[in-house]
Give the backbone structure.
Amino acid sequence: MSAETSRMPTVPGAAVGLRADARQNRDRIVEVARELFADHGLDVPMAAIARHSHVGVATLYRRFPTKESLVTEVFADQFKACVSVVDDALADPDPWRGFCTAIEKVCTMQAADRGFSTAFMAAFPDAVDVEQERYRAIQGFAELTRRAKATGRLRADFAQDDLALLLMANSGIITESTEAALAASRRLVAYMLSAFRAEQAEPLPPPAPLDLRDVLNTPTSSPRPVPRASRGPTGRQGTSDRIP
């Protein structure tokens, strides 16, 4: 395979066999949905996605019969990336470093894309691969926790509930830009990882009875404020700012 061929984008299975114009419509829908979900969360109406994609609602539903099918397509790469992050961390010979790296990368993905954590925890009964990947990621992180504790570097009272607590705090970061959100997330995660160290750990209150699904209850669907510099010469906001 030539270098040029290896750089060619893969065509999703559902898009195989479509006419060129139909495939372009489908690709545009996925790209627009990705931008809107990243900025506004998963509460974006399908009608708004159709409008910003410059297609009719009927065309949108012909390509994606349910919102769940669209979400699954949009976040397919992120689902795989999240599992890959945990797999890479488990392969690290240093369990503490693997534990820290996994948390840093997952929180970065969450801060960069407001819809991802919601999509990750949402129930997609028709998407078996998504359910399997989510289960693998959660079980993998539990194993990372066990290994990091065994080294004596992760405090003994760290609980899986604390991961949900961290993700809830991370998802609450509301800034004017993705860059600011990422910077704030890195700072927050650094503080928390320092607190997770076993060295000189002070006693804590009991863990909060949280589940990773509690992350969904945080206000991740609120759009980020739009800085004036990002608006066009007319002062109107663009597609990824607010949903008209």
